[in-house]
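Example: Uracil-DNA glycosylase.
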Amino acid sequence: MQNVTDRTSNPFGFRPPFDRTGSDERTAVFGYGDANADFHVIGDHPGVHGGRRTGVPFTETESGRAIQDVLREGGFSAGSMDEPSLENCFLSYVHMNCLPDGHEPTTDDYATLERFFDAELRAINAHILLAVGDRATDHVLREYTTQRGRLELDMAKLHARDIRGRGFLVVPIRDPREWTDGDRDAIGSALEAILGRDYRQTKGVATTVG
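Written out as structure tokens, the predicted fold is:
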């Protein structure tokens, strides 16, 4: 496989507009991990899934640590929880910019950063998209599959399901803050099943999505 880049954080050098944080605050939590990965874990924004202190997606928060635990169990992550070493796995957010405490991204905020997320997703061009939470799942299903109109956005029902996209597989993950008995085991089992079969499909995201 051709090596896309050896850079771990913001491997493609994106520079989205930064206008919501103070001069001494982190501006964004960029995509992080193995840019040649087959598995791309997609969250909402730093205020939900963490990284404002570390600069790494899925750190610091309860949800972030739970996702990391699953990745470690699956053999994707090792080392420090704040700066993990990832193999065959990339982490990013639909909305990478940091916002002041207590602020949530608006519809316009998400729209402004959509092209950066889309460009990164196409560049990584993973086989498996693991969408964490309502926002990320809705976006991935709506923009990168033909399934959104047929599926109710009920994360309890969608959790750990295989949903075919265009050239890849989407696996929604219920936000860990809402997990009930069996949810953690379900996503672990789903990843184990995927890894146990020939999950690689023809990569067509870069040319067929849009």
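The first strand starts at residue 32 and ends at 33.
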